[in-house]
């Protein structure tokens, strides 16, 4: 899947999730840790690029989220029966969405829509 697909999936799943930071204490799969580390690492880079209106660079950096987001979805069941894990996984997806939203809501860009 491309970044748009991964982002859209994250946005749709986490739409009603509280806007909280995920707690790494509740990560049980390495894919959760990798995605969280990627988001944390990209935050200052993307924020800086956006502040300087370097949107192309910001999008290029955001495109590196695709693999860890795909791996996350392949490795874990977001809507786990364990509500603590579920809430934390949704918070992690919200963190991805917040990061991408610094540049754009990709679901609103018609050129990227499939179909």
Automatic annotation (TrEMBL):
UniProt name for this protein: glycine--tRNA ligase
Presence of the UniProt keyword Signal in the record: no
Keywords, alphabetical: Aminoacyl-tRNA synthetase, ATP-binding, Cytoplasm, Ligase, Nucleotide-binding, Protein biosynthesis
Class in the EC hierarchy, top level: ligase
EC assignment: 6.1.1.14
Protein's cellular compartments: Cytoplasm
Organism: Ammonifex degensii
Catalytic activity: tRNA(Gly) + glycine + ATP = glycyl-tRNA(Gly) + AMP + diphosphate
GO BP: any one term: glycyl-tRNA aminoacylation
Family statement: Belongs to the class-II aminoacyl-tRNA synthetase family.
